[in-house]
Structures are given as C-alpha cells and as structure tokens.
C-alpha cells in the first residue's frame, strides 16, 4: 500500500500540470535556446543538436562538439533540477551523436495507509539517446534521434519506453528552415509522451540572428516562440526571446534573456526566465566546446 500511495502522489506531481508523461522532454536542452524563446529547431545547436534537430549536425563546418547543461527549472513551483550532456562528431556528409538527460523532481512526503509519515522520496527521470544525420545535398540534411526514456516513480517502481525524433533542415545563405516531429513513442504509466510537430526558421546576417518556431503538440496545444541574438566579434553575445504555451498541456508562456561568451571553441551561456508565474526565475547554464 505504501508504494501505491507514493506512486499516486508522484503522478500528481509529474502529470498534474502538463497531463503528459515526462514533460521535461520539452524543456530547452541548453541555455542559448531558452534565451531565444525556445526556438531551437532551426538554430545551429553545437553540442546540443541531438535534442532539437539532429540534421543540423551534418550541415555545420565544425567537426565535433561536446557540452553539458544545468537547469534550475520553475524553482517556485515544480522545482526541477535538470542535467544533460551530449555531443556529436561529423565525418563528411554524416554525423553521429550521443547524449542523455537526468531530471530530479520536487521531493514529496510518503504516507502509509493509516496516515503515518514514512519519510520523503525524490522522483527522477532520465533519457539516453543516439542520433544520426546525413547531408543529402549541400542545402538539405535529415536526421533521426532515438532515445530510451525512463521514469522512476518510487523505489523499485519504474517504467520506460522508446521515443524518436525525425527532422529535416534546409540552409541557404543566411537563411535556415527546419521541420520535424519529436517524442514519438509509447506511454509511461498510461500517459503519452509530449509528442509534437515542429517548424521553424532562423536568419543570420553579420552579428545578428533572429529565429522563430511553432510547435503543435498532439495532445491538442500550440507552442510558439521568437528570439534574437547579437554577437560582438563572435566573442560576446546578448540574447532575448518570448515563448507562448498552453499552461495546461505545454511549456507555459515566458520571456527570457541571456548572455554568452566564446573563445577558442569554448562557449559559456547563461539564461534567466521571467514573466511567468510558473517558470519565473528559472536559471540555465551551458558549457559547449567545439572544433
């Protein structure tokens, strides 16, 4: 009975707002993406290409990139701690990538069937994924990501499933456009993964870049975002963005600002999320190395 009560409480925490399993899959994979309104599908993502659009790794001029990211997400509500790391290696027209995420939920009280406190438990989830990309012709590439998703409800109560992303990217001059589907897979504890269709574009001229994205969640909701970035001599960056989302089924609406520095292939980014009762004061930090 203790385990049954604990897992019911866990489901209330994990699916109460989003009504979907493991909603952390939709949290931006790196600080730069979040700072630009969550518009990651058409950006050159460096080490974090695995999570937003694997196809971009086959179009970059860089050979490889590796990085890690940390989120203190929604500190006043769900209080998630999210750590992810990933990287890719490109050889000619092909690219491969590996990565994973680990998410810790807000601890909850465990209560016996007779109302006796039994301590606290911290639910967690993780993913492990691999990606493959191929540049068909110079302006066009496709990519596929496969990942295993696992949720730990309470002690030895766990469930897992397999999910997939499929993306295509077109790039010409300063314009990049991308389409894809994400989180296609099974269910966890009877709840579907936050699957969606995505379309986005980014335009780069000089030190300025603008991006936009619209996502349709199969649960019946829309997310959209816009973002901008200005880089000074490709060393220092300032970013801002706005994200719109259904608070019941998607990442809620927020505004974001961020800073970044880059030198000799090493880039450090930081982002602050505001203008949201649910996500306000979320902080993200990313470290990325590419060559």
SSE map:
Layout: H1 2-15, H2 31-35, H3 49-52, E1 64-73, E2 80-91, E3 94-104, E4 108-111, E5 117-121, E6 124-137, E7 140-154, E8 157-172, E9 175-185, E10 187-188, E11 191-192, E12 196-205, E13 208-217, E14 221-232, E15 236-245, E16 254-263, E17 266-274, E18 283-290
Antiparallel strand pairs: 1-2, 1-18, 2-3, 3-6, 4-5, 6-7, 7-8, 8-9, 9-12, 10-11, 12-13, 13-14, 14-15, 15-16, 16-17, 17-18
Structure description:
With 291 residues, this protein is mainly beta. The protein has a single domain, classed as Beta Barrel (Porin). The chain has helices at 2-15, 31-35, 49-52; strands at residues 64-73, 80-91, 94-104, 108-111, 117-121, 124-137, 140-154, 157-172, 175-185, 187-188, 191-192, 196-205, 208-217, 221-232, 236-245, 254-263, 266-274, 283-290. It has a 14-stranded antiparallel barrel. The N and C termini lie far apart (54 Å).
Order of helices and strands: HHHEEEEEEEEEEEEEEEEEE
Q: What sort of overall outline do the alpha carbons produce when their principal axes are compared? A: globular
Rounded average pLDDT: 91
Q: What is the CATH C level class, in words?
A: Mainly Beta
Structural class: mainly beta
- The number of helical runs is 3
Low-pLDDT segments, ≥5 res? 1-18
CATH fold assignment: Porin
CATH superfamily: Outer membrane protein transport protein (OMPP1/FadL/TodX)
What would CATH call the architecture? Answer: Beta Barrel
- Overall helicity: under 10%
Counting structural domains, the number is: 1
CA(first)-CA(last) distance = 54 Å
Question: Rg, please?
Answer: 19 Å
Percent strand equals over 45%
Number of DSSP strand runs = 18
Kindly report the spatial arrangement of strands forming the biggest sheet: 1-2-3-6-7-8-9-12-13-14-15-16-17-18
The major pleated sheet works out as: 14 strands, antiparallel, barrel
């Amino acid at each position: 009975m203790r385990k049954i009560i604990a897992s019911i409480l866990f489901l209330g925490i994990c699916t109460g707002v989003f009504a979907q399993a493991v909603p952390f899959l939709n949290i931006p994979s790196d600080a730069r993406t979040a700072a630009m309104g969550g518009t990651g599908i058409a950006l050159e993502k460096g080490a974090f290409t695995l999570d937003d659009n694997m196809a971009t790794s086959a179009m970059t001029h860089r050979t490889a990139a590796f990085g890690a990211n940390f989120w203190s997400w929604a500190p006043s509500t769900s209080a998630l701690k999210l750590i992810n790391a990933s990287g890719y290696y490109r050889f000619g027209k092909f690219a491969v990538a590996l990565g994973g995420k680990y998410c810790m939920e807000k601890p909850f009280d465990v209560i016996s069937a007779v109302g006796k406190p039994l301590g606290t438990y911290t639910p967690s989830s993780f993913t492990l994924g691999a990606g493959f990309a191929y540049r068909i012709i110079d302006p066009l590439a496709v990519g596929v990501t496969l990942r295993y998703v696992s949720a730990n409800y309470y002690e030895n109560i766990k469930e897992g499933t397999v999910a997939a992303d499929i993306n295509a990217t077109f790039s010409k001059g300063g314009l990049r456009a991308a389409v894809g589907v994400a989180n296609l897979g099974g269910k966890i504890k009877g709840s579907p993964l936050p699957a969606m269709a995505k379309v986005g574009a980014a335009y780069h001229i000089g030190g300025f870049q603008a991006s936009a994205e619209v996502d349709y969640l199969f649960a019946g909701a829309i997310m959209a975002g816009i973002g901008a970035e200005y880089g000074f001599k490709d060393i220092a960056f300032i970013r801002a963005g706005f994200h719109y989302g259904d608070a019941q089924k998607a990442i809620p609406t927020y505004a974001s600002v961020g800073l970044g520095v880059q030198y000799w292939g090493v880039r450090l980014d930081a982002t602050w999320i505001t203008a949201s009762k649910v996500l306000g004061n979320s902080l993200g930090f990313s470290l990325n190395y590419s060559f």
